[in-house]
Write a structure and sequence with these properties.
The chain is mainly beta. Helices cover about 5% and strands about 50% of the residues. It has a single domain, classed as YVTN repeat-like/Quinoprotein amine dehydrogenase (Methylamine Dehydrogenase, Chain H), CATH 2.130.10.
């Protein structure tokens, strides 16, 4: 969903659509709040086209509400939505090019506050968000992590990290930040910043393969870092960090373009557009083809796991310029259903009852 290579493709493709894709705010009928559990899908839209959207799928009605944010707020999300997470009763939508974090009611999608992340007149270009003990932590491409108080919804501090940080994860009271350096192509960064969440300072900087982007934590506290490499001579790589000693225990070439760690498993999208399963207990690949029923996904873009059901969700960006799809699979890799969503569906946030 988020690697630099894909961002280049989105930028190139969107140039021919920019004039015709300008977003116009519009007033629509009041939205019906999600009454039961389901999930939100953040659709990135086209780069620089200002057409990110938020869809909602209701598990009970089995219906999709497209562009639910626009319906609820009579305005659009902005340009290039990059992450969405639910924390407490609120949902946080990170919008990269617009340099905003939209905070909304998780059951109505009604805006509570728009937090602008700027350094003077310059947008910081936020990327990803995680939470820990009442604070939200947001990476931005200007080389910072913003600390946001989730009660006051104000930024209390900016922590300087490496170049163009992407994903981040919490383990053992520390924050691990993948510094990609993606905007400096081909001069990528190759570090992970370790931030102590008590002092809110960087306490260590670890070296990994160039262009680290995806990070996650397993049930044992190990931190996994997936680096994309340089798209040429340096292949993608998986590093495992011991969160107690803060050392890189292992690092090996690994075919993966996107990753999510859930409990005792990690799921990867490969360069061959397959979904593979990796055991974090044995630290080995246990399934080289998760999808077992022959379901074809044109352009797997991101993965999500519903921890309450064990279902796996794969988004499909298709041709990157038209509406995408979300596929739901049971634990055995068989398709349950698929739905049509917006352009470049990137992240999923699960809404529980």
């Amino acid at each position: 969903m988020k690697n630099f290579k894909q961002n280049i493709l989105l930028a190139v493709v969107s140039l021919s659509f920019a004039l015709s894709s300008c977003h116009k705010d519009r007033k629509l009928a009041p939205v019906t709040p999600p009454a039961t559990s389901g999930f939100y899908i953040l659709n990135q839209g086209l780069f620089n086209a200002n057409n990110s959207t938020l869809s909602f799928y209701d598990y009970t009605s089995k219906q999709v509400t497209p562009d639910i944010f626009s319906t609820a707020n009579s305005r659009g999300l902005g340009d290039t939505g990059n992450d969405v997470e639910i924390y407490g009763s609120k949902m946080y939508v990170v919008v990269n090019i617009s340099s905003t974090v939209e905070v909304v009611d998780s059951r109505t999608a009604k805006s509570v506050k728009q937090i602008k992340l700027f350094n003077g007149a310059n947008g910081r270009e936020p990327r990803d968000i995680v939470f820990y003990k009442g604070n939200a932590y947001v990476t931005s491409y200007d080389g910072t992590v913003a600390v946001i108080d989730t009660t006051s919804l104000t930024v209390s501090k900016y922590i300087t990290v490496g170049r163009n940080p992407e994903q981040l994860t919490v383990a053992n009271g520390k924050l691990y930040v993948a510094n990609s350096g993606g905007l400096g192509f081909p001069n990528f960064d190759n570090t992970v910043s370790v931030i102590d969440l008590t002092s809110l300072t960087v306490v260590k900087t670890l070296t990994v393969t160039v262009n680290p982007q995806n990070v996650g934590t397993d049930n044992n506290g190990n931190v996994y870092v997936l680096s994309a490499g340089d798209y040429s001579s340096v292949p993608s790589s998986l590093a495992i960090i011991d969160d107690v000693q803060d050392i890189v225990k292992t690092q090996t070439n690994f075919d993966g373009s996107n990753m999510i760690v859930q409990g005792d498993n990690a799921y990867f999208i490969t360069s061959a557009n397959k979904i593979i399963v990796y055991s974090t207990k044995t630290q080995t690949v246990t399934n080289t083809g998760f999808i077992t029923d022959g379901t074809a996904i044109t352009t797997p873009y991101s993965i999500a796991v519903d921890h309450t059901t064990g279902e796996l969700f794969v988004t499909d960006a298709k041709n990157y310029t038209s509406n995408g799809a979300v596929f739901a699979f049971d634990k055995t890799g068989k398709k349950e259903y698929s739905i049509t969503v917006g352009i470049n569906p990137g992240k999923i946030a699960f809404l529980e009852k």
